[in-house]
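Database export, one record per block. Field names are fixed; values are copied verbatim from the stored entry.
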Amino acid sequence: MVIGLAAVAIGYELVVDHPTEAPPPAWVAVVVGGPALFLAGRARFEYEVFGRVSPSRWIGVLALLASAPLLVHAPALAASATAAGVLAAVAVADARRAGPPTGAGCPALLTIHAR
């Protein structure tokens, strides 16, 4: 996960410097590969800790890898936006799967619900 986050930081730095240029394949590999590597690492962590893996993580990895060949011909900002959109979709899917927060473990939320 840490290597994936480092790759995300490097990729986004490249995009910030050259947002409208068509990126070389190596840039797309970093911009899209960083989030894919993070999701794969998170899936491995989830498997080791909980004994299961959320399917949204693998779908996110596949979506990122499938979009990479198309993003070589688009501006670098499109690659960054695609990666951010896939990560947001994974977060929304995980939040929906988890359900609404119960407030257990947070005294402030318990106080609000009691009113």
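Remark 1: The mean pLDDT is 85.
Remark 2: The radius of gyration is 17 Å.
End of record.
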